[in-house]
Specification:
CATH superfamily of the largest domain: HAD superfamily/HAD-like
CATH topology of the largest domain: Rossmann fold
Helix content: 40-55%
CATH class of the largest domain: Alpha Beta
Number of domains: 2
Number of strands: 6
Largest sheet: 6 strands, parallel
Strand content: 5-15%
Radius of gyration: 18 Å
CATH architecture of the largest domain: 3-Layer(aba) Sandwich
């Protein structure tokens, strides 16, 4: 059993807790216009451009979606329409949790305060959080911090608001590129990677791997650790 019990467990939201269905949203808009192979390329491009769009100055997430979608359309020879971007953006608050999340959070929520740090807008995030079925001590958005992950500013803002240091928290994410690499660079020693299958393992970043949030209680010392099959 782990000997480290954090003061707070901090989470990425979209992809880690919420089933972040941008790929499905893109298919629902463009699937009839592209072959399956072309659709797969389009989704990869759309994902890559979304990351690129959040590396600069903060802008509303609708602009992130619009810009990345327009770039993906240009690259793939598809006509871009702003109403398609709006349609995809409007899906975000309708998405719910991965199946393992509510029960997994219930194991830890009464023992350790839970915090979300999300690349989200204030107007959207609580619709998703309310579907998680657990109380959160704080929900912090990129709109509030003025920066998107993987930039460090949001993490620093969160630590300041919690009044603690990187050594006091466990950060949980399914993404190295958006979360765990930055957490490593900031000296957050206790990190949990939720293997959702959308990024490969990278042991350099020194984390505990779990297959779902059901394994989180073991990772923070509240129950025996489950072996990864």
């Amino acid at each position: 059993m782990s000997t480290f019990r954090p003061k707070y467990i901090t989470f990425d939201c979209y992809g880690t807790l919420i089933n972040f269905d941008m790929a499905g949203a893109a298919r629902r808009v463009y699937g009839s216009r592209l072959s399956p192979a072309a659709m797969a390329r389009f989704i990869e491009n759309f994902s890559a451009y979304r990351l690129d769009e959040v590396l600069g100055a903060w802008k509303p997430y609708l602009e992130v979606v619009q810009n990345s979608l327009e770039r993906a359309c240009k690259r793939n020879g598809v006509a871009f329409r702003s109403e398609d971007a709006q349609r995809i953006y409007d899906e975000v608050p309708t998405w719910g949790p991965h199946p393992d999340v509510p029960a997994g959070l219930a194991k830890v929520a009464n023992e350790i305060p839970l915090v979300i740090l999300s690349n989200a807008m204030n107007s959207q995030i609580m619709s998703n959080v309310n579907k998680l079925g657990a109380p959160f001590h704080l929900v912090i958005t990129a709109e509030e911090t003025g920066a998107y992950k993987p930039q460090m500013k949001g993490f620093e803002y969160m630590l300041d608001k919690l009044g603690c240091g990187p050594e006091d928290i466990t950060h949980v994410s399914s993404s190295f590129r958006y979360d765990l690499m930055t957490a490593y660079d900031l000296g957050i020693k206790s990190k949990v990677w939720v293997n959702r299958g959308h990024e490969p393992a990278n042991p350099f970043y020194e984390y505990t791997e779990i297959n779902g949030i059901g394994g989180l209680a073991g990772a923070v010392g509240l129950e025996p650790v489950r072996k990864i099959a």
